[in-house]
Amino acid sequence: MTISKETQSLNMPWEQEYGYSQAVKVGDTIYLSGQVSHDDMGNSELFINKEN
What we know:
Elements: E1 5-8, H1 13-18, E2 23-26, E3 29-32
Antiparallel strand pairs: 1-2, 2-3
């Protein structure tokens, strides 16, 4: 029996460098990664409240 595997990425620099995928589908199951907010150039869009 052969199990199919598909990956999905956004072509961000770290995906190729670290082997990171946004999602991996193995058979009938989809595994989603944790997400980091970033713009289309890969720059972090993390906002921190500096008042506290």
